[in-house]
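dude i think i finally got it to work??
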Amino acid sequence: MPIDLGKEWTGRLDRVEALAVSEKISAEDRSHLAAFPEVVVLAHLILDPPTTRRPPS
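look at this
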């Protein structure tokens, strides 16, 4: 089943626009966030890694 990219893109932009902080973010940056959410999450993990450690197995 192919993904309807137009619908997916619109849905992502709608979710970004719904955030209160979105009015402080430029339209171009909101578009990047909608287009590349995985990169944003990865950058967040690199710049602010979790501090809790998993117990050894």
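The helical segments are 5-17, 27-35, 37-47.
im so relieved honestly
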